[in-house]
Amino acid sequence: MTRESKWKGRAIAIEFWLLSALVAGSFIAGLNRYAVIPIVIDDAALATLKVSGRFHLSETDSFAARIASLFDLRVERKADAIHLRRR
Out of 1, 9, 46, 76, which residue is the most buried by the measure of CB atoms under 10 Å away? Predict the structure, then answer.
């Protein structure tokens, strides 16, 4: 499987990206440009999860909630960041 992405305006469609690439890479950098609060993965094991979908850059909370629902994770919103954790 290859990693692909297609940017359209302030949205991106991604296929087979590692969660770590999303958070550390250009997607989250773009997302964080439009968001007030960054997303953080607290468990290194979660970084190997593969993600596909269409996400809007201005909807940080929605992105975190969607990723959490896909992988049965917990979202914890703090003053400094949105944290994704195992349940």
Answer: 46
Specify the number of domains making up the chain: 1
The 10s digit of each residue's pLDDT in 40-52 is 888 878 877 877 7
In the DSSP assignment, the letter for residue 37 is: S
Task: Give the residue numbers spanning the domain of 26.
Answer: 4-86
Distances (CA, A) of 78 to 2, 4, 54: 34, 31, 25
28's CB contacts (< 8 A; 6+ apart) are 22, 38, 39
6 Cβ partners below 8 Å, 6+ apart?
12, 13, 14
